[in-house]
Amino acid sequence: MKPGLDDLYAQTLARSERLPYFLDIISTIALLQEPLPTSGIAELLGIRIYEVVNVLVNLQAIIQVPGTDNMPAIPPSATFLPPKVDQADSLHIRVIIGTGLFERSESDSATRLGREALGGHPDSPDLVHALADAIYSRATHTASLMDLEEAIFLYRKALPLRRSPHADRWLSLNNLGTALLVRYRHTGTMADLEEVISLHREALELCPSPHPDRSTSLNNLGCALDRYRRTGTMADLEEVISLHREALDLRPSPCPDRSSSLNDLGDGLLDRHLRTGTIDDLEEAISLYREALELQPSPHPDRSASLNNLGNALLDHYRCTGTIADLEEAIPLHREALELRPSSHPDRSSSLNNLGHALLVRYRRTGTMPDLEEAISLLREALELRPLPHPDRSPSVNDLASALLDRYLHTGAMTDLEEAISLYREAVELQPSPHPNRSSSLNNLGKTLLDRFRRTGTVADLEEAVSLYREALELRPSPHPDPSSSLNNLGNSLLECYRRTGIMADLEEAISLYREALKLRPSSHPHRSLSLNNLCNALLDLHRRTGTMADLEHAISLHREVLELRPPPHPYRSSSLNNLGHSLLDHYRRTANMADLEEAISLHREVLELRPSPHPYRSSSLNNLANSLLDRYRRTGITADLEEVVLLYREALELRPSPHPDRSTSLNEPGVSLLDRYRHTGTNADLEEVICLHREALTLQPPPHPDRSVSLNKLGNSLLDRYRLTGSMVDLEEDVSLHREALELRPSPHPRRSYSLRSLSVSLRYMYKETCALPHLREAITRCEELLSLLSPHDAVQRSDRAACLDDLASLLQKNFSATRRQEDLTRIKMLKEEASRLSPSASST
């Protein structure tokens, strides 16, 4: 006998004893030496066959509750046998029921018997309801939507046959509500959910205090108000918590259902925490889950569920606080839950998913690859246990895709990325509108398409991602509990669009979306820091485009706020340190304030300490620290900084072997520092290595890779340096060709077009010097004129760049005058020099 089931058996028998001839039939079966067919039992007792079948179908509830299709049910203890049956006969009952009438499958047998009985008595409420129970039980085993639909049809048929004050109306209301709730979770049809709530409200009204079933109705209604997760209505969530609190009060220890109410109340508080960020709700949920677990020692049949609940809550606590002890406790809890759910257990897939997810979280903290590989293995097994049309297949599809995406980001294996995209597409197809989780799957698919765009530059992926994010946002109107995630995701995709095309409307919409998301995440919200980060990044882009110092100052202020929200040991503290370091470096480059640069270096050193090998983002931190030190070297000339920069870039490159998706970036970075060292020392080996690194980077960025133009420019610059050293026209010609291609990849209004114009203009000047071919000079003048048009005379940031451009253009026109003697060139040269003089620092200070 399993602990905790005695009360369930008692309740089932108590309901069955009201059936006509129940005790006579069950006693007869017990006393028979050989199994009799239902007709034989009816003839022996002088009753009708359907009355025998009715008793047996109802009795089936006792058999099926603790068993599965592959594991026989554990029969009730002798304590609860009917009074006319002694303990010696109990085994005989079990043998006859188990091997005579229900040999193949309890639910299949009960369904067959129920149909047989109902055929002769179609309006019997007990038989209709009993058949519905049997078919519903089969639906829970097979995930058959057809069985579920038939069960709902029969429950509906039974309900009007049990009008109030029928003693079993409460049972019919609850069972119909439960079946409809299952269908809602499969289809997302709001009408089902609304009906479920209505049914359970009526059932609750039939159980005024101190009715013994009131706590059950309170729990059922609380579960039905799952509507909150769809609509975001806080009133529903508050009612859920209130209902479960009342149910818990009605189930003091040692009530066998207390653990169930503890878990349900914990779930409600956890949902409220996720909505409001109130840590007290999370702490109380953990406390409730711990008590529930204590009430379910092994081998309690529900212990695995409580282990999972506590493990998931501890993971949430870890995400809020970064306390590694929470994560380390959660993983063993999920392992124990999995051990309690062997291959035949119907909930094994849930435990596989939960353990896989916990290991994935630890991998993201530590970078330990065995955790990631085990997570993928567990999530694959979970998915195999949820073949179509399993109602939980789509969550498993999403979870496995997420783990594969992590492995792609670590290794760069395109097969993982392609499989993740394929899985996310399946999840979207499995969740047609109005499925409540469709928006989440749309967001996930959008994210992976963005990752593929960043790798391949395929614009169709970017455009599809934007479209998916817009649909997801439409599915989360206010007061949906999580519109902020969709706002942020759409903002991220539009920011990518802006960085590709330079269209200001995309950047402005992204900023607007980020601001709206931030409003929905007040100071107590657990994800406020994410929204702050996104807004900061967009403001930095805006600053880099317009030069407005207020945007940069605001970004720095916001990054400092984020850092305060992530004190040690918060798992995302390193990201916040990184972002603040980036913005301070931008501030230094604008103001030349050494304090900004020194703080940026200090922050990036702290980040690197928080990301020891094999942390998946260590390579990024190595690059960021190197970038800051390179700026200090260029300011101070301290050779030690340059040498450290080279070492840091080399370590980052080693951590990104092919086909790592960021290898091309790491190839370009050391190239920059080696070029600086070559210019400092004149060591030809450095220059040759630079060219080799940039060529490899370019090979890894075939069209239409979004960063190809960067590699084209860098390779062109290094070839120009070698031309200056050797005079090789081959290098100069390739340099011009590379800069032309880069410029074509940066059409107006691309934010980096001005850089390509400047680089091409310089290269064409050298080409004219070598060839004296006027077309080269004229093109150089044209490129320089376009660059000048992009540099506003009224922008303080662009003031020095415009002055330099004016001087360059004047020099080019002077060469043109020397070759052509065009008088208008002299007029323009005079005007250009006058404006350059007005823009000079000495002129602006007077």
TrEMBL record:
Pfam families: TPR_10 (PF13374). This is TPR-like protein. Keywords: Repeat, TPR repeat. Signal peptide: none annotated. InterPro entries: TPR-like_helical_dom_sf, TPR_rpt.
